[in-house]
UniProtKB/TrEMBL annotation:
Gene3D superfamilies: Zinc/RING finger domain, C3HC4 (zinc finger). Residues 1-49 are annotated as: Disordered. It comes from Caenorhabditis tropicalis. This is RING-type domain-containing protein. The keyword Zinc applies. InterPro entries: Znf_RING, Znf_RING/FYVE/PHD. One of its GO terms (molecular function) is zinc ion binding. Residues 18-49 have a biased composition (Basic and acidic residues). Keywords: Metal-binding, Zinc, Zinc-finger. Residues 75-116 form the RING-type domain. The keyword Zinc-finger applies.
Length: 139
């Protein structure tokens, strides 16, 4: 049977103290690395948030410019000029307008290219959705 060291051996106490000290140093080192990693992550998130807000602002400016300069006499989807036959201006549920041909190309299920809202158009009442006021403005 192996013999165990005497309980109050000063040499074992020193070795255990060194091992504990070494573990404490390692733990402190890991804590510092963790804190540094957290700091860098927070900085990166802040930079990403700043970049995201810049991109959102740019997108809003581009959309405002596009909306201000959009020609109301053309379809938002195909960009063809409205007429009274095939490309009749058709009002969407969201308030935007596209031509009749685009609105009915997927069996009356249509997604607005501006805001992505979905609209449906039953074949039995096609004239109900016409928006001929746009044609009046075209002159």
């Amino acid at each position: 049977m192996p013999s165990s060291p005497p309980p109050n051996n000063p040499r074992d106490k020193r070795n255990r103290k060194r091992a504990v000290d070494k573990d404490n140093e390692e733990a402190k080192k890991l804590e510092k690395e963790l804190e540094e990693s957290k700091r860098k992550t927070a900085e990166a998130r802040g930079e990403n948030a700043d970049m995201k807000s810049v991109l959102i602002l740019r997108w809003e400016v581009i959309n405002q410019y596009a909306e201000a300069n959009r020609d109301i006499s053309t379809c938002q989807d195909c960009h063809d000029r409205y007429d009274t036959v095939e490309r009749q201006p058709t009002g969407l549920r969201c308030g935007d307008t596209s031509c009749r041909k685009c609105c009915y190309k997927n069996n009356g299920a249509y997604q607005c290219p501006t805001c992505n809202m979905r609209s449906t158009f039953p074949e039995e009442q096609p004239s109900r959705y016409n928006n001929f006021k746009i044609l009046d403005h075209m002159g």
